[in-house]
Amino acid sequence: MIRLERLSRTYKTLTAVDSVSLEIPSNTIYGIIGKSGAGKSTLVRLISLLEKPDSGEVWYGSDRVDSLAFDDLIARRRRIGMIFQNFNLFSSRTAAGNIAYPLEISGVQKKEITGRVEELLAIVGLEGRGDAPISTLSGGQKQRVAIARALVVQPDILFCDEATSALDPQTTRSILELLKKLQREMNLSIVMITHQMEVVRDACDFVAVLDNGKVVEQGAVTDIFANPQTAVTRDFLSHLNPMDGLRDAAPAAKSAAAESAGATAAGDLVRWSKEGGAYTLRFRGNLTGEPVLSRLSRLFNIEFNIRAGGVQDVHGTAVGTLIVDLVGEGDEVRKALAHLEAEGIIVEENK
Prior knowledge:
This protein starts with a strand and ends with a strand. It is of the alpha/beta class. It has helices at 40-47, 70-77, 95-105, 110-123, 139-151, 169-186, 197-203, 221-226, 231-238, 251-255, 292-299, 330-342; strands at residues 2-11, 14-24, 29-33, 55-60, 63-64, 80-84, 157-161, 189-194, 206-211, 214-220, 270-271, 279-284, 302-314, 317-328, 346-349. Strand 9 (206-211) and strand 10 (214-220) form a beta hairpin. It has 2 domains: 2-227, P-loop containing nucleotide triphosphate hydrolases (Rossmann fold, 3-Layer(aba) Sandwich); 244-349, Alpha-Beta Plaits, CATH 3.30.70. The strands form 3 sheets. The protein has a 6-stranded mixed beta sheet with strand order 6-7-8-3-9-10, sandwiched between helices. Strands 11-13-14-12-15 form a 5-stranded antiparallel beta sheet.
């Protein structure tokens, strides 16, 4: 487990990380999401020991690591893997040469390096491409080389700093699937820094939402999607890009919360009316397949108008969202909203 206690970092007058405390469970994929300037990159540099905090503590298991002596710090960094948005590969080296580099500077014997590099090339799906110049590889292949290079030192923690931001959606999906596979097979702890909520949805087990250097919300990804507590999280959810989130979802989830309103099953929130939308309704699990609003209009003297809808598959759980107007007398609308909440549906009034 990685534990952060009251971590802070200030540059001149800018507080990039402001008293952040987190627990990142072992053998999981943990997402840290925030908009540009939220402090994500600074936080990952602190967690990965590339920078020292001004105050606070970083613990790996039972060991405090932010205060290590220089030689011990270098030794601990060598057990950490990192991949970046821009790959950071040597253009003068082949794919195999890039993967071999961390072992070369550590003094590992050439025969051992060759075997380890061939093993990693196969693991990341680039078997037989070791001699390929970096300039001949696609963006996705370059990121696979970067992943292999990060793993060649057999780390127990892998940090991914905006690792899919430079990739197209299809390549992003393939890289996320690879990372999930590696996490399972190698018992890795992966920390993903991102500004893409679809990356959190499709890869992460837990997430912390960062805003102005502070953690404003954290928890299991399914819980955050089904019941976001802060405005910044709800804003992220309202701008999800289509990532085929329901591609492998159960048929019941694909019918989902949009009832007969015409939303696509692509996994994104589809809005067909820019007007209205007084309430956001969030559904989880079996509720996404129920005709909730049709029943509501029969129970109470109201009419409904669906402005937007969609369903996400979040770790096998269907999470639906509807943006609606409810039309009727004030008492009837209040009773209808109370009924929805009693049924387990999260109701948010949009300002």
